[in-house]
Fold this sequence. Notes:
Blueprint: H1 12-21, E1 26-32, E2 45-50, H2 56-64, E3 82-87, E4 91-95, H3 106-122, E5 126-134, H4 141-153, E6 157-162, H5 169-183, E7 194-195, H6 204-216
Parallel strand pairs: 2-4, 2-5, 5-6, 6-7
Antiparallel strand pairs: 1-3, 3-4
Amino acid sequence: MKLPFPVARPEPDDLADGQRLFAPETGFLKGVVALAGLPPADRPEICFAGRSNVGKSSLINALTGHKALARASNTPGRTQEINYFTQGDGLYLVDLPGYGFAKAPVAVVEKWQTLLRAYLVGRQTLRRAFVLIDHRHGIKSVDREILSMLDAAAVTFQVVLTKADKVGEPARAAVLEQVRETLNAHVAAFPEIIVTSSEKGEGIADLRAVIAGLCRT
Length: 217
Ligand code: GTP
Ligand code: MG
């Protein structure tokens, strides 16, 4: 069976819940470099994964209404730690290190993959992984690796397309088609896509609504 993977269109009630969830302050809790450093698993959490420079930190800033909470940089590979943010007192937002940074030494990449896999498999309070994909480029081979890792870890993931402001209408449709085609091969893919621009605000309220839905269950 082929799934259509529509773009998420949350109901007004969900949008209001999303707005409420993100009204309280967001705080930076800590950067984690080893499993032992993870905070107690005492509340739901969601994580953001994606290749270096895809816009993870920018998306967290946009979601939480901050300009520079999660540092957004022009230097790929800057976010080297698993960064924990508190949203109010009921949710953790987790900014994962970017993958696919060609200049990183093999040993560093392997260390991160091991940590990432252990985190994904073992974190019981992880409600969903949001995998960010650049809307200009679609899903690349470096992304497929993490999608397969999520399948294997049985962590439901949802694709968030980023930088939509940089893509015109015909290209959007073509890339969406490629993304849908690829997601059909992944058992852990949540069957809706979110299209965002941290720059222009597109889709940010929708993503907040989806996250609010995850906190309810
Ligand atoms: P790492 O932490 O290195 O893995 O990168 P990241 O995924 O956190 O990316 P980051 O948020 O630092 O953004 C990378 C670059 O993309 C920055 O120059 C951002 O300004 C730019 N960027 C991020 N989101 C958007 C967007 O929605 N639109 C546009 N036009 N640029 C964006
Ligand atoms: Mg970052």
